[in-house]
Each structure stands twice: as structure tokens, then as C-alpha cells.
Amino acid sequence: RPGRPDGAKGLRFRPVEPNTKDAVTVPSGYDQNLVIRWGDPILRGAPDFDADKQSAKAQAGQFGYNNDFLTLLPLPGEQGRQVLFANHEYTNEEIMFRGYDPEKPTREQVEIAQAAHGLSVVVVQEERKTGKLKAVPRHKLNRRFHSRTEFRLTGPAAGSELLRTSADRTGTKVLGTFNNCAGGTTPWGTVLSGEENFNQYFGNLDKVTDAEAAARLKRYGFEEGATARRWEEFDTRFDLAREPNEANRFGWVVEVDPYDPDSTPVKHTALGRFKHEGAEPQLTADGRPVVYSGDDERFDYIYKFVSDKRVRRGRSRADRAHNMTLLDDGTLYVAKLTGDSPKKEIDGSGKLPSDGEFDGTGEWIPLASGDESFVDGMTAEEVYLFTRLAGDKVGATKMDRPEDVEPSPRTGRIYAALTNNTARGVDDGAGPDEANPRIENKHGHVLEIAENWDDPSSDGFVWRLFLVCGDPEDDSTYFAGYPKDKVSPISCPDNLTFDPYGNLWISTDGNALGNHDGLLGVATAGERRGEVKQFLTVPKGAETCGPIVQEDRVLVAVQHPGELDDASAEKPGSQWPDGPGKINRPSVVAVWRKDGRRIGV
Ligand code: FEO
Ligand code: CA
Ligand code: CA
Ligand code: CA
């Protein structure tokens, strides 16, 4: 009989071997179930999923596509139940629809895809006897947010002329949220969600005649001609030439109150507009929220927002309404990181400098606060709307694709996943620096930040690279100094979360080591700091998203099973989750210990 697995508390499981199985694989002694799949009905009146009879109306009452960020909130008074919140980042039409013609999508397909984007709130219930977690359809809190749901723009840029369209002369009412990638859970019981690659929904950049507008759109990655989904052919708001300000209404952090199904969700302009991966808050000692957010693009920046207002702890309607305004008043900052080793020692190979660490100091450069801009040549409104340009002007540090930026609830230290950047040091791309030390960075790294005086509102910090990812046998990798013969390989860190013991859990997207993506845990303190252990892997073509690690259960969002890098690649792709001949369905999976005990203890 093998002995009890060792590891830091919370990480005592036998690591899963890297693999290419078309399955969710979990450690021995653990079990799993599908909590909810794309198309499962959640609202009253929504039909069961039928791939061959799907409609936009059905989809608007069903769980959306490509579940990404997940969070679970308590549901007091309902035994064994919690409230699950999920982002639905994007759609894979070529997988969703049999015989899909990308040149000629039908109106129905377009409208199904639009309804499959957005967010879901769905109550889930634990089955006492089995350990399974199941969705509760038709619960009164269940809700879908999609392309036609009304959102309210708030904060200092709300109502700006650049946010007004022919359908909304006020510049404050937006229909829909798109490409919601990661998110955050607030201490006041709401959920934040980042609008990430919103550029891909808007076409015809080449027909935009205003040169300044075109340059700004270019900085955000908008493209010429038709989009891949061709929504602009069905709805003029997605045509940059016809409705030039509509695109300015996306790229924000969204806030939802999942406990009030009648509430209007909000887009907070004070947090700036960029490709928000997620938005994760922590509180200052005097109760003001500070929200960290990464802009997921090669050579883009890490930001934080510090609120001027204090959270109210009460649960009254007035307290909740106050808390929904916390992210409207405050200061937006961008990060600049400076290494402490000589530049010549950072040669792009990933070899550690002579002081033994990639580390240094940093400053949070203020960009704007309320109506006041701190950026030469830009108004505050321009800073919020075109935040990337503000970061460019103040010399922020160009990072290797900042994904989740997550404060540890235990220590307040902040961890940022820099997923990869194969353009680092190539052609015109910026060269290596101590915070992004490898050229052609295929596997990414994880940055650790400690705010000065442990104060989240501080304008300075110290930082070090916690992990430099890849195959531990590769000399350019680093696992916080932990012996590399005792760790799992890790590539392309994306989403981050913490377990109840303070261990960091990392899900991956795009494993460049040839194996499938997965979820890994790593101790951040103590003797085992840096010991990375793989907890699960996901099926063919899938990315691992939205990890939640509770005391007795782990949840992951299995996103885009069957997605192929190359449309001409091998068929069939994945058969997950419903088996041969069935259409792949992105799903939420729960994992628990068969003996009912706590995870990793
Ligand atoms: Fe949607 Fe940056 O991952
Ligand atoms: Ca992500
Ligand atoms: Ca150093
Ligand atoms: Ca990703």
C-alpha cells in the first residue's frame, strides 16, 4: 500500500501525470461530476439542450458557451446550496453548429452565438450521499446576461460623447457584455467580470475615416474588413464605420449583484478600458477596495484601482447600493517594474542573475482620479477610455501577457500570471528585462508583488518572479528555489486562485510542452514554497479556467473542448463530455475526495 501523499497542507495528493487523454483526469482517491454543461436549461421555460434544434430563444434561458471564470457564493437559508457565477467568454461556431459555413453564417446562428456569450448565475446543490454538485434549474436567483441585457455605465467617463451611439444618446446604457474572461469576487458579495478581447466583435476598421479614432482602434487590436463571426453584417452596431462609438462601450470591468435578480449590472469606467483579464479586489486597513487587473496582450500592462470609499458591512438595501458605487471613485494606476540586477546579466536566456533572483522594485504610476488626469496631453476621460495609450505615455512596463492578478487573502501578496510572449525580443518586440527575462517566452512566468508597508493602496512595491514556467529539466525554469526534480511541469499560467491554506492554484491555457492543460497547486510559503503539483488535466483542445478550491471541493471550467489550433487538423477532435458523435459542450466539473475528507489534507 502506498503511503499517505506528502506535500504542504492542502496539497497532499499524488500529482496527476502530464498526459493527452481526452478526459478530465484527477488524482487517485478523487472523484468528479459534471455540474452543468453548455445548453443545460437554467431559467424557467428553457428547453433541454438539443444540438439540432438549438434556437436563440432557447439559448437565452440556457447555460452559455465557453465557461471561464467561476465563483461560488454562499446561499444562507438553503441547505447544501451555493450560488455559482460563470463567465461565458466566447463561442466556437465551428464546434457548436454542424455544417457551419464561416463565410455565410445564418441569422439564427449569429443570434444563438450572441445569446451564448455573457454571464450566468445558477444555484447549485450538493448531493449529500454522492458528493456530486448539481445545478438547480429554475431557481429564483438564476439569471442569464447576454448580448441584449442592459448594462449601465457608471463612474467618471459615463455619458462621455465617445460613449454615445444612435441607440443610446445618453452614453450610459449598453446592451450586452462580451468576451468575459476572468473576474473577481468582492468582499461585499458581488461579482466582477473582465471584458477581454472585445475587439474581435467589431469589423471594418479600414472604413473608419477619422485618423485619430482609427489609431486608437488599432492600439486595441481592431482589424480591417469582416470579423470572423460577421455580426456586423446582421447588426450595424458591430460595424465600426457605421457606429464608431459602440466599441468604446466594451473593454470594461462589469459588476453584478447575483443576490438581486432584478438589478441592473454595471460597467465601471473608473477601472479603465483595456483587455481586462480579470479584476480581483482586496481591502485596505480602513476598508477601501483595491482592484488589480491585467491587460492580456503581449507587451501590455498591469493596473490597479484604489477606491476613495469604504465598504459598508451591513446587508441592507442601502448598504448594498452604496457598495455598488465603491468602484466609481478612486485612482487608477499602472505598474512600472525596475530590476535590481545589472542589465547585462539579463541576457534573455532565463539564466538567473548573480544575486540569484529576478527581482526589484516597482511603482504604481497614477493615471487619473475622478475628473483629474495625471497624463500629459490626455484628459481624464481619454485616460479611462484609451487607458492603453495612457500606459504607453507614462512608460509602464511591457509585460508578457498579464492574465489573472490575484491578491493572497492570507498574506496580501499579489500574484500575476504572465502567460507567455513568443514575441519578446523578436523583431520589433521589446527585449528582455528582469521582470520578463526570457526572449521568445513560450511557457510564461508568475510574478509576486509585495506592496510597501503591506498597504494595498501604496504607490510602491517590491517584486520577484515566483515561478519561471516550463519543463523543470529546462535550465531556464525556476520554481522559487524548490528542488526541480520534485515538481510538476507547468506551462502558460492563466487563472489563479487560493485555497483555504494560502496555496496558490494555477490553471493553464496553451500548454506548450505537448500535454493537455490542467490545474496545479503550489505552496507560496514555508519549506515547500515553489513545489508545483498537478491536480487535474482537461480533455483534448480544452483550456482549464475558473478554478475554485474550497475545503472539500475543487471546481474547474473546461473551456472549448475540441478546439483545434488549425481547422484542417485531425478529426475527430474531442469526444468530451457526451461521447462519440455528440457535439462538444464546455462544462463545469466538480472534484472531491471519495472518502469525503478535505482536499489535499
Ligand atoms: Fe481569455 Fe487572457 O484569457
Ligand atoms: Ca484567461
Ligand atoms: Ca535580481
Ligand atoms: Ca487565456
TrEMBL record:
Residues 1-15, 563-585 are annotated as: Disordered. Residues 1-9 have a biased composition (Basic and acidic residues). InterPro entries: PhoX, TAT_signal. PROSITE patterns: TAT. Coiled coil: none annotated. This is PhoX family phosphatase. It comes from Streptomyces tardus.
